[in-house]
Amino acid sequence: MGNSALKAHLETAQKTGVFQLTGKGLTEFPEDLQKLTSNLRTIDLSNNKIELLPPLIGKFSFLKSLALNNNKLTALPEELCKLKKLETLHLNANHLRQLPAAFGQLSALKTLSLSGNQLRTVPTQLSGLRHLDVVDLSKNQIQNVPDTVGELQAIELNLNQNQISQISVQISHCPRLKVLRLEENCLELSMLPQSILSDSQISLLAVEGNLFEIKKLRELDRYDKYMERFTATKKKFA
């Protein structure tokens, strides 16, 4: 990709606040973007070959949306956590094993997609984020869901296609969690906390493709309580 093409993209971005450059084989974050730190609201660099996000990412203080799906990121810089206006972060299909320690400082974050990475647990940093709506951690290597999940503020948590065999009972204490996706994991029925059925806000529980038959789940005493919420929600959206 030539300099003139990049220049044209930069000029457009200056006017629109959107910089989108996908599928161009970029191996690094375009340095020239730092001229637009106060202009940009959206950066999309998906489908490239970027291995590192430079510390200068922390200077885009008005950024609301950042997408780096399908790159080669193995880590994220702490500076990313300075983006106080960031609402949407898409990092699907990278090689991330963990999140920066200060990730909980992304106080405006609403949507976080980390599908197809190499996470081994639900990051504890997510519990500090008060405005989270959707968290997608599908297709990782998560084996257990820790107690800190009880503080998660998300409305939807997607844990499909992991290796989960244990879930903390605290998940039923999530104050806003309505949708919990656990399809294609390694759960025995005895390892699914029954309090999810009886004492949670969850009104959509997706657990197909685990080590038990759905029929067995429906036979549990507390399943009726869950069905009441499920039906009430369906009526609301009907």
UniProtKB/TrEMBL annotation:
- Pfam families cross-referenced by the UniProt entry: LRR_1, LRR_8
Among PROSITE patterns, the record links this protein to:
LRR (PS51450)
GO CC term, one of those recorded: cytoplasm
The record's section on InterPro entries has:
Leu-rich_rpt (IPR001611), Leu-rich_rpt_typical-subtyp (IPR003591), LRR_dom_sf (IPR032675), LRR_domain-containing (IPR050216)
Which keywords accompany this UniProt record?
Leucine-rich repeat, Repeat
Q: Which SMART domains match?
A: LRR_BAC, LRR_TYP
Kindly provide the name given to this protein in its UniProt entry. Answer: Leucine-rich repeat-containing protein 57
Record organism: Horornis vulcanius
